[in-house]
Amino acid sequence: MTGPRFRAPADTAHLPWLKIAAYLASQGLQLDPATPPRQFQGGLANLNFLVQLATGPAVLRAPPAGPLPKGAHDMRREYRILSRLWRALPVAPRGLHLCEDETVCGRPFILVEYRPGIVMTGDRPPELDSRQGAGEYLGEVLIDTLADIHAVDPASVDLSELGRPDGFLQRALDGWIARAEACAPNGLSPAAHKVVTWLRARPVPRGDATLLHNDIKLDNLILDPQTLAAVAVVDWDQGTLGDPLFDLATLLSYWTEAGDPPAMHQLAQMPTANYGFPSRREAVARYAARTGRNLSEFRFHRVLALLKLAVIFQQLHQRALRDPATPPQYAGFGALADGILEFAGDVADDRYF
Questions:
Q1: Is-contact 112 69, C-beta < 8 A?
Q2: Taking the CB of residue 87, how many other CB atoms lie within 10 A of it?
Q3: Number of Cβ within a 10 Å radius of residue 127
Q4: Domains in the chain: boundaries
Q5: What mean pLDDT is reported for the chain?
Q6: How far separated are the first and last CA of the chain, in Å rounded?
Q7: What is the greatest pairwise CA distance in the chain?
Q8: What is the average per-residue pLDDT within 108-113?
Q9: CA–CA dist 210, 241 (Å, integer)
């Protein structure tokens, strides 16, 4: 098992480290000048650097440069969560500092406790090459970690005012449809129209409200390199209070199976089509057993989460059209979004779980 992977210096995003160091010194935090910050590999958006403070290693997180989608990359929200949640959830790294002064590096940023371990990215992580049966255990880790997040009492860690749980799913429906329409100034594609029509024709389920991560997937877990147990859950910038089944559906939107159509394999977000991972249906059954929740209306959450995923890829594709400095893979995200929408329609029709 290897340790964390970092970008080469030529591929590392530039931040004004002298200004950051001066600011941190003014806050009583000393950045070690002898240890250059190193950017972690992975991720399509937020910038993550391993930095060395006088007190030890930490992670500096900052949004990408340029205009940001509404509600995304919210460092203030992430710090609010992580400065409190560690008291109730052992896998939550502790938030150490929030910089709201955007004159320091052009955007807010946070410092978070560093948890050493490995992060498995993509659909063929090298860490699984010699551990073909590890998928069954990792599937359990994902579901059990999500159930643990949903079991936290937000009031016990001063997070009961984090979001607006009443009407959460209706707002999510309206918001993602509006974003889909904004990505299609000439009108929704047939696949998008089918998904939107299906969702609008059904009553919005009314469930309980819990703490949500809102983007749980394997590469947002840091794992023990020997046991593969979860050491930390990262990327909390979309955390809120709302319907926990939407959190589960978001996880399953990345959960590819061997018999899925090509778009789900092109997604390549998790290695769940191989290595012995449980099926989506088995994952849902484990979640239901762990939480006791009724999942009879779960298909609504599934289809909405797939619409959300497709729109996110459409937004990234549009960013590529505006900014030639965008990573080259973004250019293909428009076609990927179309494929995800086709799959969402198949899920709505019960052709896939």
A1: no
A2: 13
A3: 17
A4: 9-113, 126-348
A5: 94
A6: 33
A7: 60
A8: 97
A9: 5
- Checking if the pLDDT of 72 tops 70, the result is no
- What's the pLDDT tens digit per position in 305-329? 999 999 999 998 888 777 776 777 8
CA-CA distance, 107 to 249, in Å (whole number)? 31
The β-bridge partners of 95 are: 112
Side chain identity at residue 139, one-letter code: G
**Span 159-197, pLDDT tens digits:** 999 989 999 999 999 999 999 999 998 999 999 999 999
The rounded distance, in Å, linking the Cα atoms of 139 and 102 is 40
3-state secondary structure the chain: CCCCCECCHHHCCCCCHHHHHHHHHHCCCCECCCCCCEEECCCCCCEEEEEEECCEEEEEEECCCCCCCCCCCCHHHHHHHHHHHCCCCCCCCCEEEEECCCCCCCCCEEEEECCCCECCCCCCCHHHCCCCCHHHHHHHHHHHHHHHHHCCCHHHHCCCCCCCCCCHHHHHHHHHHHHHHHCCCCCCCHHHHHHHHHHHCCCCCCCCCEEECCCCCHHHEEECCCCCCEEEECCCCCCEEECHHHHHHHHHHCCCCCCCCHHHHHHCCCCCCCCCCCCHHHHHHHHHHHHCCCCCCHHHHHHHHHHHHHHHHHHHHHHHHHCCCCCHHHHHHHHHHHHHHHHHHHHHCCCCC
Place of tokens 């699984």: 128
For residue 347, give the nearest of 283, 302, 281, 311 by alpha carbon: 302
Give me the half-sphere count of Cα atoms (radius 13 Å) on the Cβ side of residue 67: 9
| pTM of structure | 0.93
| List of residues 6+ apart from 141 with CB closer than 8 A | 221, 223, 228, 229, 230
CATH class of the structural domain 126-348:
alpha beta
> What residue type is assigned to position 68 of the chain?
L
Q: What sign results for the dihedral spanned by CA atoms 348, 275, 45, 225?
A: positive
Domain 9-113 fold is: Phosphorylase Kinase; domain 1 (3.30.200)
